[in-house]
Specification:
The complex is a heterodimer of chains A (about 160) and B (about 180). By secondary structure, chain A is of the alpha+beta class. Chain B has five helices and five strands. In chain B, strands 3-4-2-5 form a four-stranded antiparallel beta sheet. The longest helix of chain B has 15 residues. Classes of the chains: A alpha+beta (about 160), B alpha+beta (about 180). Chains A and B meet through helix 1, helix 3, helix 4, strand 1 and strand 2 of A and helix 2, helix 3, strand 1, helix 4 and strand 3 of B.
Chain lengths: ~160, ~180
Amino acid sequence: MMPNMEQQKVQSLDKLEQSLLNDFQQGFPLSPTPFAEMAEQLGVSEEQVISKLEKLQSHGAVSRVGPVFRPHAVGASTLAAMSVPESRLEEVAEQVNSFDAVNHNYEREHKLNLWFVATAANEEKLQQVLQEIEATTGIEVIALPMLEDYHIDLGFDLQWT
Amino acid sequence: MDMRTRQGSNTEHPIIELCDADQPLIAAIQRGLPLTSRPYNTIAEQIGWSEEAVIQRIEALQQGGIIKRLGVIVRHRELGYRANAMVVWDVPDNEVAELGRCLSGFEFVTLCYRRPRHLPQWSYNLFCMIHGRDREAVMDKFNLMIESCGLEDIPKAVLFSRRRFKQRGALYRPSPTTQTGESSR
């Protein structure tokens, strides 16, 4: 665990960047010129807001400025887990990643050690993807679809310390 | 501590449903809004709608609960939140909703779902995601959850992430601006 580089990156964020990251995770303006509206609130220019967001996006701190859809409102998705022999983990992770339907893929500390999220236009296509992943990797895919969502998404309160 | 009060329930039925006419809009915004002075107009030109129609439909999708939020989506790891854990609980089926609401009340919980068990490999039915600067911070939060929601006797596990092999927004529809590799996050 070497947090130094990350910490440095975080500490080098200026006030405007911190505010863009923390204060606009929800309630993005629905006016024709939303970035100008944000700029006015922040006391900077529209160009500054847009160029800062471009920079944060290119550095990876911002994934995107856009919508978070309620699970299952659009298309079908599921969390899925696999138990992959350590020696094959990188190879299998790459095989799983190669599917466009896979948007998240993590190694986790458990016997089920590879966890990914797959999303498709509908349930049938989703099942097809999971079957293809099983066929490609030769490893059982355990699908654990969301049954109920208890979380109100207000974004995430970043703490700058 | 950093416990934020949340109200309401996220499991209410939406007021509106998506229709076929929404598909081009979903495809155009799923990867994020363009960083242009008039992003809704940029989208409108791509899909042949008016700017006003784009704004009104996004607003309706938000009010109808199809869009949970619209804004800056951050990537925790890049912001110094090095540790992320999937915290899972094996809760009696008749208590899962109540405990789910209790656990989702914490500001640091970014997802809280009921999912099926898959025996014998997997016995947990309630899942939360939590993020912290390091493992210790995540474990502090985990212990706070146990204490606050009375989960001492519930079977549980913390699955820290080791490597991240992929993280980007979901693609619900074939995207007109499909990108590949690193730029697709």
